[in-house]
Amino acid sequence: WQQPTAVRLVTPNPTSATQLNNPNAMSGQGPDGNRPVTALTFDFIGGGPLQLWQFLLRLLIDNRCQHLIRWTGNGWEFKLLDPNEVALRWGLQKNKQRMNYEKLSRALRYYYSKNIIKKTAGKRYVYRFVCDIQSLLGYTPNELFEACRLRPQNDEDDE
């Protein structure tokens, strides 16, 4: 595993790509300073095939996917709210029609020994990025939540 050296946040409109350190991105404004950012995603600079942890990070940063996967508000911890749908989308991304949560969770276990993602003990479908995501993204968790207009999943939100 080789950690990318840079990430670029982009708005859904491909003509308005913005760097992470753009001060307008932090304020929730579009690159023109007026139009609010409705959703952000990111591209890894350096290429190569999309890895599962990168795919999960993309979903986590996209506020349109908060019904599937969401930050817990506890650092870089996240919860799969609809693990089967997340697995299905990963399968579509990798052209593997038989993907399910069991296979996805097996793939996630590969990252444990690589110190990329770890399972949060005692919590179902809850994981944490243990690699230096903050340096990679250039945001603290709370700054990222604000920039991407994300609402972390609180314990009282659990079923």
TrEMBL record:
Residues 50-130 form the ETS domain. It comes from Sinanodonta woodiana. GO terms for molecular function: DNA binding. InterPro entries: Ets_dom, ETS_fam, WH-like_DNA-bd_sf, WH_DNA-bd_sf. Pfam families: Ets. Signal peptide: none annotated. PANTHER family: ETS (PTHR11849), ETS-LIKE PROTEIN POINTED (PTHR11849:SF289). This is ETS domain-containing protein.
